[in-house]
Each structure stands twice: as C-alpha cells, then as structure tokens.
C-alpha cells in the first residue's frame, strides 16, 4: 500500500483504499469484540458497535439517579420539562437494567476539507428511540472529551444533520444540513479542525491510507465511543 500523497489531507482514491483495507482487516476478527459489523459501500464506511451499559454514564448525571427524585420536584416541572424528564428517566432505567446501546457510525469523505467525516446515531429502549444531543453528551461522550466537543475543539463539535426531505418553515430545504448519502437524521463531528489536529498528532509523512484512517479513528472516533478493538490491530497496521 503506497504512502499518502498530501498528508494531512486524503484523496478520494486513498479514502476508498483505506476503507476497503479496514473492512478486510475486520472481516474475520469482529467476533469477541464490540464491533458488530464493518461495511464499505463504495461511498461510506459503516460501522455498527454495541456499547455495554457500564461504558456509559460518564456524564454529569449518574445512571439511575432519576429513580430517587423527590415527588415535589416533578410537581414543579412544566409539561414540556416533565416529558423530557420522563424520557431521561426511562433511558436511565433501561441502562440500569443492563440494556445495551447500539451505535451506527458512518464515515464519509468531505470534499471541502479533504478529510474523513464521522456521522453517528444511537437508539435505545424497546421502541428504538433516538438519543437527543443532551443524552449523547451524557451517555456516549466521555467527560474528558465533553468540553472540547462543546467548544468545537480540535475534534470539531457535535452537530445534528437533519433530513432535507421534511424541511420546516423556519429552515428551508436548501439551508438545512443532512447526511450526504442516507439523507437521514444523524449527528456528526465537524471536520474543520481535523487536518490541524492530525498534523499536531504526528509529523509522519509516509503513512499508508489505512494507517491514516486508523490514526484518524483514534483521534475523532474515541470521543464519541468509536474505539478500534485491539484484536483488529493484533497483526499490525
């Protein structure tokens, strides 16, 4: 596999090569890991991961705390706040019972920034409800990464991409952001600072595309729960 042409940027061909290599690397090694599947579609790299409940809840609210909330607290809530509180309490209850989360990640190439972009969505509960941004920060993002993501640090910030199929009156379709391939609601990490972050992380100019993608995953994926299983790296990069 040839070295990168213009690190820290990555070309379309290099991106495809890297995604294909990671898919092949994980083909027979996903068992006994928390990666359920890895698939390169030719346009995006899809990774599905299960998260153990003990890996979540690093945020400001401990899991299950909602169960011990005083009754007069609920009486002071507005209808809207009460509904949101019920959702959070149900979510905490599911976690407390040992339920797992399944997170779907999508990696695409940004034509503007010439770097990969990480998209993700997470659902929970028997009704398969999508997590809100607050829940993402509370149950998916480690505390040490929360400030950087909220302040749009080196990893970029978490944003919500919404489908352009159902635009709202206040947000016309041509002004809305959306997943470039699936056109489904999804969170993503903005790639505006990715090149600078990669340059600071390593000065290595002779990375292969797959090495680049693994380096990028360690930098961008880790803050939102996408860790590369050590089993996939056991034979070297």
Task: Provide a descriptive summary of the structure in words.
There is one protein chain. This protein is of the alpha+beta class. The protein has a single domain (12-63, 102-233), classed as Yope Regulator, Chain: A, CATH 3.30.1460. The chain has helices at 12-26, 71-75, 79-96, 133-139, 143-150, 194-201, 209-221; strands at 35-40, 45-51, 101-109, 116-124, 129-130, 158-161, 186-189. Helix 1 packs across helix 7 (209-221). The chain starts with 11 loop residues before the first helix and ends in a 16-residue tail after the last helix. One of its GO terms (molecular function) is Atg12 conjugating enzyme activity. This is Ubiquitin-like-conjugating enzyme ATG10. InterPro entries: Atg3/Atg10. Keywords: Autophagy, Protein transport, Transferase, Transport, Ubl conjugation pathway.
SSE layout:
Layout lengths: L11 H15 L8 E6 L4 E7 L19 H5 L3 H18 L4 E9 L6 E9 L4 E2 L2 H7 L3 H8 L7 E4 L24 E4 L4 H8 L7 H13 L16
Antiparallel strand pairs: 1-2, 2-3, 3-4, 4-5, 4-7, 6-7
Helix pairs in contact: 1-7
